[in-house]
Amino acid sequence: VQLQASGGGLVQAGGSLRLSCATSLSTFERYDVAWYRQVPTKERELVARAPSRGRAIYADPVKGRFTISRDNAKNTVYLQMNSLKPEDTAVYFCNAKYNSRLDFWGQGTQVTVSS
């Protein structure tokens, strides 16, 4: 199984980026998908999750600014990030989980927001 994250980069505060995570999962629609982020010396934290069914959830720091979406026909999950802040700087990871055994991670993409 492959999860290929892309779309990271350097952006000024207030700008936008769109992350993509293309997967090779043949039953992608059955998986909960999510984006996490991590900075050095801190644990990986959940940014947003789009379950296979139901509404998306967001971490408080990104509510109203980030939007997670999924395209089940393309086996891809996206993260639209608007009004970016320097504190959003991190490596962003995509995750696809069906159960504890079927739990997959992408390689991470760096997002850097300059002030």
Could you describe the 3D structure shown?
- The chain has strands spanning 3-6, 9-12, 17-23, 32-38, 45-50, 57-58, 66-71, 76-81, 90-97, 103-105, 109-114.
- Strand 5 (45-50) and strand 6 form a beta hairpin.
- It is built from no helices and eleven strands.
- It is 0% helix and 51% strand.
- The strands form two sheets. Strands 2, 4, 5, 6, 9, 10 and 11 form a seven-stranded mixed β-sheet that branches. A four-stranded antiparallel β-sheet has the order 1-3-8-7, with no helix packed on it.
- It has 115 residues and is mostly beta strands.
- The protein is globular, with a radius of gyration of 13 Å.
Rg is 13 Å
Class derived from helix and strand content = mainly beta
Share in helix: under 10%
Question: What can be said about the biggest beta sheet?
Answer: 7 strands, mixed
> How much strand content do the residues show?
over 45%
Give me the strand/helix succession. EEEEEEEEEEE
Low-confidence parts, pLDDT < 50 over ≥5 residues?
A: none
Quick one: how many beta strands? 11
Distance between the termini: 37 Å
Number of helices: 0
Mean pLDDT: 97
Overall 3D shape: globular
